[in-house]
Amino acid sequence: MVDDGLWDRVDVAHLAVLRELAEHGSVTAVARATVLSPSAVSQQLKVLQRRLGLVLVERAGRGVRLTDAGRALAGIAASVSTALATAEADWQRYRGGVGGTVRLATFHSAGELLVPGLLDRMAQHPDVVLETFDEDVLQDDFAGLTADYDVVVAHRSDDVVPPRRDGLEVRLLLREPLDVALPLDHPLAGRDRVTPADVIDEDWIVPPPEFPIDRVLTALAAQARSPVRIVRRTTHLPLTEKLVARGHGIALLPRHTTRDRAEGRLALVPLADLRAGRVVEALMRPDRAARRSVQVVLDALVAEAASYAV
């Protein structure tokens, strides 16, 4: 017999908790994300299982995991959340108003580049509260942050296949070229451009492995057929700039982010014979992307990024 009475037995709030468990992986993490106690999360899951007569969650070591039925229902929950958010956005659009809180996570240099102008643009929407957070992770780990934030600004090198981001909305913001940063008194500082062969034997200041800039350096080394001589690693771009300016090495730095601070301190020289850049994108869960307040923030973010597009 076909079970056609799902919605007679399911509470949307309980479905949302199940979906969060699929995203976060533990009851404790779900409790933090939903502002519920762990016991309340567990109770809602028990009620959902009892009403459906199915085991949705099972013990796994000290934690829990979803069963096949749980994963299937979590996928349905994601669709329901998106539909509800779309309906709410349509209603807000009809009423002519938009409000709410939007949580935006950016890696450090993207925040520096985009957030000040974004806040200027958001002044037109006083009822939307924009909260900003710093999150600098490996490029393949940005997708996981969408469980905790409405919009995640991520970056990746533009010479690789994008990492898997199943079930996410992805919006291109901009491609930012990477230039070779040199001390002002460096013999190559006055060049219009430099090749990998010109700079491969220099001392390099680089980010940790698997960050987009480091991946471009790997391509640079392959083209020059020589390894990069690394003398320092840091993710902090202002520190890298200071080290370059004082002659402690050279670096690849994002053009738009660095340009204003570089004037009178260091030279930014384009790299020839190699496509060097990073792609900056906004990642969102579909249900959050459907929210009217998130759409407003995203539109402002895209407009701000467009002012730097090349």
UniProtKB/TrEMBL annotation:
<keyword id="KW-0804">Transcription</keyword>
<dbReference type="InterPro" id="IPR000847">
    <property type="entry name" value="LysR_HTH_N"/>
</dbReference>
<dbReference type="GO" id="GO:0003700">
    <property type="term" value="F:DNA-binding transcription factor activity"/>
</dbReference>
<dbReference type="Pfam" id="PF00126">
    <property type="entry name" value="HTH_1"/>
</dbReference>
<comment type="similarity">
    <text>Belongs to the LysR transcriptional regulatory family.</text>
</comment>
<dbReference type="InterPro" id="IPR005119">
    <property type="entry name" value="LysR_subst-bd"/>
</dbReference>
<dbReference type="InterPro" id="IPR011991">
    <property type="entry name" value="ArsR-like_HTH"/>
</dbReference>
<feature type="domain" description="HTH lysR-type">
    <location>
        <begin position="10"/>
        <end position="67"/>
    </location>
</feature>
<dbReference type="InterPro" id="IPR036390">
    <property type="entry name" value="WH_DNA-bd_sf"/>
</dbReference>
<protein>
    <submittedName>
        <fullName>DNA-binding transcriptional regulator, LysR family</fullName>
    </submittedName>
</protein>
<dbReference type="GO" id="GO:0003677">
    <property type="term" value="F:DNA binding"/>
</dbReference>
<dbReference type="InterPro" id="IPR036388">
    <property type="entry name" value="WH-like_DNA-bd_sf"/>
</dbReference>
<dbReference type="GO" id="GO:0032993">
    <property type="term" value="C:protein-DNA complex"/>
</dbReference>
<keyword id="KW-0805">Transcription regulation</keyword>
<keyword id="KW-0238">DNA-binding</keyword>
<dbReference type="Pfam" id="PF03466">
    <property type="entry name" value="LysR_substrate"/>
</dbReference>
